[in-house]
Design a protein that fits this description.
- 6 copies of one chain form a homohexamer.
- By secondary structure, chain A is α+β, with helices and mostly antiparallel strands.
- Chain A has helices spanning 52-66, 84-101; strands at 2-14, 28-40, 69-70, 113-121, 124-131.
- Chain A contains 2 helices and 5 strands; from the N terminus they run ββαβαββ.
- A 5-stranded mixed β-sheet of chain A has the order 3-1-2-4-5.
- In chain A, a hairpin with a 2-residue loop joins strand 4 and strand 5 (124-131).
- In chain A, helix 1 (52-66) packs across helix 2.
Chain lengths: 137, 137, 137, 137, 137, 137
């Protein structure tokens, strides 16, 4: 299996609901360093997994939609905790949609799975790793 | 699949038996930067894989039991080489036991697998990745 | 010159006032990975710059006072932008005060200067480096 | 599953053919920080995955064959783009051959799979992850 | 003293002349991870050292002029070895010129010194640290 | 001012004497990731601060003399605590002696100062920064 990983970041405010979150129930924020890994079993005719320029552009666009915002006010997350895990999934879903729409080119449709990792500090991270095939996610 | 990773470290002395270890047969030591990744297919009602506060506390407790010690004198490792690989497994076993005992809360029992990575320097690491289901480890 | 550096982090929400900040004028947030470096020309009788346990405790206390908060609501920063630079200075001032109060022990008073670096992402950081001598800061 | 990872690097010049590569169609170069992960389900009698000294030696030899060269002139890559993905596979194939030849010792033949990751910058990487069993690569 | 550091990178081909360079006398290449630190003793009215957006833009422009090129063919370096040290100085000079021209805004003229560090691998780096005052560089 | 930095590591056992060290009074160990920075105001005729091959060789030799040892048994440290600070100074002194002896070549005698940093974990480091001129260290 081949993979390509690109890195970006986003900076957000939010609060989390539930005793389990302790002081993170207060309005605070985070920088998430975001790694998006694209995987496929074979390379295309150019010898690549994906057009890394387009992939980087897509990742930056997805992160820009979330960054410099208070996620408590974002309709997309209404009624849900925007934990690092939930945000990893949100980035995954948006990247998967971009691939399905063809934003990363036709070749990108050969990508079989994607892993999104959000590093919230030097000592904690969360990820979502999923198939792009509807039947096996 | 979702995952959450927390980082800690331990500092130990030990020696290794066997020609394959060269100068590491002498009493020496290591700092291990330890990453523990917890995985499960779905999030709980709070939107998390695991209570990260409890997970961090458990990892720190497990590492504190090993740290600032000469592992050559620890009964738990009598007759065995405390290689980075063996120590990765030891941390895994102790974290798995803590989950089974309920130390990380009832929700943590939904964790399906754990990966423990010990970075012994900037150029070498070892890991153990195992299921928490007895039948598939 | 000798130095010892300890690392911690804080997670905050804030907004910044001024056109220069672009989208960061909106309420958002950041994780700051914080390095505090303590310097002195000679070591004490134990062979150290500072009691690293106490230094780490002080740094964590200072960061805990700022973390998991919306800095827009903190009286300490009323009327000021909480840029990374300003926060680096705020951490410096609080660490300097702790040293002056003796929180890090009498030996810590031999520390001549401190550098505080806040990493706000993998591609940006700010720092404040100052003397602990009133005349030369 | 156990694993051991060793890190090395190589520095090469090359150019890439195809519009998708944009400015990288020009002759340029890269440092690749290379992580090679060796995996097997059980440890040997010494408590290790692989002789890390030999593994490091093999990885360095493989990288030395590629490093400080213009890959456009290397017969091994004639007619092919030396993308990061292709180079990850080339390192994999050479490490796999070295294991098969016994260069890493008889024990190394128990290694079931290898993952090679090339970090081309702080924001991009590619990898090839393959089985050493002919039937399942 | 306050500072702000921004990171970028460039990927180049080159060869070096002189026995001291060993295999690096052959045409090869490098990725340089580039940190540019801007320093000044006081903050401006916005609470910043420099407009980080403009600083990042300038650093990226300077690196783009050098990246994806064979430096052996660049007139700017004719007759000179493009060692990591020389390239650190070249980036410094170009950033200093941009500040002097006002590309980073009038406020940036208060920057007193700049440090440019090029990381050529995980185990080697070079830097140039200089004043922006003609008399004291 | 120009600088070149090379990285190596060492793995040692030791114990520390004094209540301030808490659990580190027990026999334990550490991996130190070691950065040695060489500085001089001008480059030599080849465009370098120092022959990086020789510098790396010297640093590795110095670290090999200390590594894979119990420092409690080393005569060089008899009666002294081998704190990270003391070890940073010990590495500095040995590198300075190597330069003075000419081990790094005649050109290396132009190096004016050296900084040695030992990273003992992801959250703690110590350094010694000194002049190579007897009068100003």
């Amino acid at each position: 299996m081949y993979s390509v990983t690109v890195r970006g970041h986003m900076m957000i405010a939010h609060s989390l609901i539930g005793d389990v979150f302790g002081p993170a129930q207060r309005l605070h924020g985070a920088t998430y360093i975001v790694d998006v890994e694209f995987r496929r079993p074979d390379l295309d005719a150019d010898g690549i997994v994906i057009d890394i320029g387009r992939a980087t552009g897509t990742v930056h666009s997805v992160l820009a939609e979330l960054s410099y915002r208070n996620l408590d006010d974002e309709p997309a997350f209404a009624g849900r905790n925007t934990t690092t895990e939930v945000l990893a999934r949100a980035v995954f879903d948006r990247v998967a949609s971009a691939i399905a729409r063809g934003d990363l080119g036709d070749g990108a449709r050969a990508v079989e799975s994607v892993r999104v990792t959000l590093h919230e500090s030097h000592i904690a991270a969360a990820s979502f790793d999923g198939s792009l095939r509807a039947t096996s996610r």
